[in-house]
Write a structure and sequence with these properties.
This protein has seven helices and five strands; from the N terminus they run αββαααβαβαβα. It is an alpha/beta fold and 201 residues long.
Length: 201
């Protein structure tokens, strides 16, 4: 792809990122929603890797655990309805490209995953990145959010993420070191847009 084509797509993604950030502010009814958030900036003065998440929904557990606060948020009917829609989208996507080896997580299961999250929602939008970068995006979204969300920008990336989740589950099945992605939701741009519209209308 030419430079101009790639720049157009990146500009389009940035516009979408800002639009989704603003829509999430409406759904969660507060301003603690940011794009390009450095998750570990100034972490007790430690010099450690600090991933930048594409979109995050707070509040942010930077100096204290907020698991109970996130539990309270999950009791909000609007937030619960929105997240349940995304859980169903993830199920559709996994079942579309999966042959039954991976069982999609139910909403009630995710509630008890990653209680000591860094933020309430962590969202990564994946477009023109390598498969190795996809792993980083998935791990960061899952590790840092109570709910981690991946938005693949193409059908090719969607298939790649389904294969990645299958890989993590296989490692667990084979009793090898792995990473728990049970709170990770794979949601397409169209599915996210539809879920947002349904909640806001």
């Amino acid at each position: 792809m030419g430079v101009l084509g790639g720049r157009f797509r990146n500009d389009h993604l940035k516009i979408y990122q800002i639009q989704l950030r603003d829509r999430l502010k409406e759904i969660f009814d507060f301003e603690d929603v940011y794009e390009e958030w450095a998750a570990m900036r100034d972490e007790y003065g430690l010099s450690i890797y600090s991933p930048r998440l594409d979109i995050v929904v707070g509040p942010f557990a930077t100096h204290e655990q907020l698991g109970n606060t996130y539990d309270d948020m999950l009791r909000n009917p609007v937030i619960e309805s929105f997240l349940r829609k995304l859980v169903e989208c993830n199920k559709v996507n996994l079942e579309r490209y999966e042959d039954g080896f991976v069982r999609p997580s139910e909403y009630e299961e995710i509630l008890f995953t990653n209680h000591n999250a860094r933020c309430f929602l962590s969202i990564e939008i994946e477009h023109m990145v390598s498969r190795k970068h996809l792993i980083g995006g998935a791990v960061n979204a899952s590790a840092l959010g109570r709910f981690g969300i991946i938005i693949p920008w193409s059908d090719e990336k969607l298939k790649a993420f389904v294969k990645l989740v299958r890989y993590f589950r296989y490692l667990r099945y084979a009793e090898k070191n792995t990473f728990d992605t049970s709170n990770l939701l794979i949601v397409t741009k169209e599915q996210m847009d539809n879920a947002v519209i349904e909640i806001l209308n």
